[in-house]
């Protein structure tokens, strides 16, 4: 456990050295600039759009960090040949994989937390500058704690994508890992269509294949509750719990597979 | 401290590079401005292009970011509507208004203001809008299908039947349906009764527009204000018509405001609430709104689709 946390901290420090936090500045600038511009363009929908933009930007920035750092977590060590030095230390291969994963998740957690704070600050400012009479037209309060539900599921989705990137990174090149992870990210959002495939095809085997793929591929569309949250619609606690549970179990499966593959890899 | 020759050379190279970048960018901006000026009409045509027309396709392409794409289409819808309103009356087409609000609401089915905004402006007659109350009703029905608890959509459908089709029976039916929903305001049922009983009275229309005037959306407010002024203009036309009939010109002379003013019947040439003088037909004395008035055209009857 100690070894895992040490590796995690070192991955986090490396991401700071790689200037990953710069994206936070970009995020803050994007939000602040938008809040000034949107009021002129959106016919009173500026708060809704700031929420949409803030949540989407959190997801996009996180996605890029998860994919582009995730794919290099293991393969970079192999390419640089620093893997030999690492494996010579009293660290097991599973500890190395789990530590790398935990480090990137820590980086993502800090990113998502800072972006969420920035989003709330901008929303608080907009709420403060909007007359109460105008606020009555909003679907949900400006500073709405329910936004955290969407942020939380974005974070779980990013953890899953990091798991995918790390999994591919244990046996393929960074380029291929990025392509595969991004491909699965896209497919994961069409996954819900596979569930209903049997309604549009006559072949039973095709329907079973689609159903099988629906269960095997990551169901990423389930993590998207941004629209509901922004419009002040209810997202039941049960839905959050089941989706989080699904995400964590899928991540566990990916990490087990990644450690298994990495443990059997021959670096000679 | 003395600068070394190498330092001067390096500083000189930096200055040349900075000047080069600024010069090239300035020239590019100059060309851009010239192109926009010379080919202004062509840019306007490009703005009319909608690359994705299928809402479902757009939803698929948007992945996790459908709400954000909805915002983009919403902003385009507003820009399109505003741009057409600013265009000369002959060029106003509004042909993208429905596809844009349709895309917006497919991408974000809970975007209430997009349905209501779309309905108000789609149904407005030319030149203020495309004059498509049928599309307005289709949009509101779509909104109601997405959020069956929202009485506002049913109220708005009733409003379109009332104001644009003058179909008071159908309008009253929709107001009744809206009143049946939980959380609907208490004034809906009396409104349905009054529309059904005396649909053609302007009091109901004033009441409905005053409800819209309470909206926090500036665009809706402005439309409501304009419509209320149109109602005032209709009242004024009725009064002036009565005066013209009561005090016809001496035999052989045409009807005119000047004649009525000269005879002391009117204090001055009467103007509509926007300040444009009313027209009076020289032969019949029929009073009407001037075609140059910002309130033109006044609400008129259209054929209603099946409810």
Give an overview of the whole structure.
The complex is a heterodimer of chains A (268) and B (307). Chain A has 268 residues and is mostly helical. Chain A is globular, with a radius of gyration of 21 Å. The longest helix of chain A has 37 residues, at 93-129. Helix content of chain A is 78%, strand content 0%. Chain A has 12 helices and no strands. Chain A has helices at residues 2-17, 22-41, 46-70, 72-80, 82-88, 93-129, 132-135, 147-169, 174-195, 204-216, 226-230, 237-264. With 307 residues, chain B is mostly helical. Chain B has 2 domains: 46-217, Serine Threonine Protein Phosphatase 5, Tetratricopeptide repeat (Alpha Horseshoe), CATH 1.25.40.10; 224-288. Chain B has helices at 5-38, 40-47, 55-61, 66-86, 97-107, 112-123, 133-146, 151-165, 168-180, 188-197, 202-213, 218-246, 257-262; strands spanning 279-280, 287-288. Chain B has a two-stranded antiparallel ribbon. The longest helix of chain B is centred in the first third of the chain and has 34 residues, at 5-38. The model of chain B has no long low-confidence stretch (mean pLDDT 82). The A-B interface holds A 41-45, 48-49, 52-53, 55-56, 59-60, 133-134, 136-137, 139, 185-186, 189-190, 220-221, 223-224, 226-228, 230-231, 233 and B 60, 63-68, 70-71, 74-75, 78-79, 108-113, 117, 215-219.
Quick take:
The complex is a heterodimer of chains A (268) and B (307). Chain A has one domain. Helix content of chain A is 78%, strand content 0%.
Most extensive chain-chain interface: A-B, 32 and 25 residues
Number of strands of chain B: 2
Specify the helix fraction band of chain B.
55-70%
* Alpha-beta classification of chain B: mainly alpha
Helix count from the secondary structure assignment of chain A: 12
Number of domains of chain B: 2
The percentage of residues in β strands of chain A lies in under 5%
Instruction: Give the neighbour order of strands across the main sheet of chain B.
Output: 1-2
* Averaged pLDDT of chain B: 82
CATH superfamily of the largest domain in chain B: Tetratricopeptide repeat domain
């Amino acid at each position: 456990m100690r070894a895992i946390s040490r590796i995690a901290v070192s991955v986090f420090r490396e991401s700071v050295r790689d200037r990953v936090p710069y994206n936070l500045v970009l995020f803050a600038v994007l939000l602040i600039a938008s809040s000034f511009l949107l009021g002129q363009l959106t016919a009173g929908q500026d708060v809704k759009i700031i929420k949409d933009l803030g949540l989407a930007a959190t997801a996009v920035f996180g996605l890029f960090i998860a994919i582009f750092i995730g794919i290099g977590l293991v393969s970079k060590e192999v390419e640089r040949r620093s893997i030999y030095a690492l494996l010579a230390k009293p660290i097991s291969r599973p500890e190395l994989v789990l530590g790398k994963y935990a480090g990137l998740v820590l980086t993502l957690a800090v990113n998502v937390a800072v972006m969420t704070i920035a989003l709330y600050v901008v929303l608080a400012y907009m709420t403060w500058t909007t007359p109460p009479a105008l606020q009555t037209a909003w679907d949900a309060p400006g500073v709405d704690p329910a936004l955290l539900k969407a942020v939380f599921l974005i974070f779980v989705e990013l953890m899953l994508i990091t798991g995918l990137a790390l999994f591919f990174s244990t046996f393929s090149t960074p380029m291929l890992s990025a392509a595969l992870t991004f491909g699965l990210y896209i497919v994961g959002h069409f996954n819900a269509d596979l569930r209903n495939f049997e309604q549009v095809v006559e072949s039973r085997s095709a329907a079973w294949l689609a159903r099988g793929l629906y269960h095997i591929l990551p169901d990423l569309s389930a993590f998207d509750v941004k629209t509901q949250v922004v419009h002040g619609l209810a997202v039941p606690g049960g839905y959050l719990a089941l989706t989080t549970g699904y995400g964590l179990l899928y991540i566990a499966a990916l990490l087990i597979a990644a450690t298994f593959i990495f443990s059997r890899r021959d670096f000679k | 401290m003395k600068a070394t020759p190498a330092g001067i050379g390096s500083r000189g190279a930096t200055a040349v590079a900075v000047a080069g970048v600024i010069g090239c960018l300035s020239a590019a901006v100059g060309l851009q401005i010239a192109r926009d000026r010379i080919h202004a009409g062509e840019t306007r045509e490009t703005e009319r292009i909608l690359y994705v027309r299928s809402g479902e396709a757009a939803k698929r392409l948007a992945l996790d970011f459908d709400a954000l794409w909805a915002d983009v289409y919403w902003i385009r819808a507003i820009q399109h509507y505003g741009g057409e309103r600013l265009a000369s009356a002959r060029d106003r087409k509004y042909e993208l208004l429905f596809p844009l609000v349709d895309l917006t609401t497919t991408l974000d089915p809970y975007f209430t203001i997009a349905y209501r905004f779309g309905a108000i402006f789609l149904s407005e007659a030319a030149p203020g809008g495309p004059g498509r109350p049928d599309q307005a009703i289709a949009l509101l029905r779509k909104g109601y299908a997405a959020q069956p608890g929202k009485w506002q959509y049913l109220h708005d459908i009733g409003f379109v039947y009332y104001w644009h089709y003058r179909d008071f029976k159908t309008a009253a039916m929709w107001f009744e349906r809206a009143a049946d929903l939980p959380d609907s305001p208490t004034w809906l049922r009396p409104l349905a009764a009054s529309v059904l009983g005396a649909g053609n009275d302007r009091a109901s229309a004033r009441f409905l527009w005053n409800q819209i005037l309470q909206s926090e959306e500036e665009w809706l407010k402005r439309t409501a204000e304009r419509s209320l002024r149109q109602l005032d203009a209709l009242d004024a036309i009725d009064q002036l018509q009565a005066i013209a009939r009561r005090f016809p010109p001496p035999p052989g002379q045409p009807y005119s405001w000047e004649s009525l003013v000269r005879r002391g019947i009117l204090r001055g040439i009467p103007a509509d609430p926007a300040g444009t003088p009313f027209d009076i037909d020289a032969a019949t004395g029929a009073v009407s709104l001037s075609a140059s008035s910002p309130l033109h055209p006044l609400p008129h009857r259209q054929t209603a689709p099946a409810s």
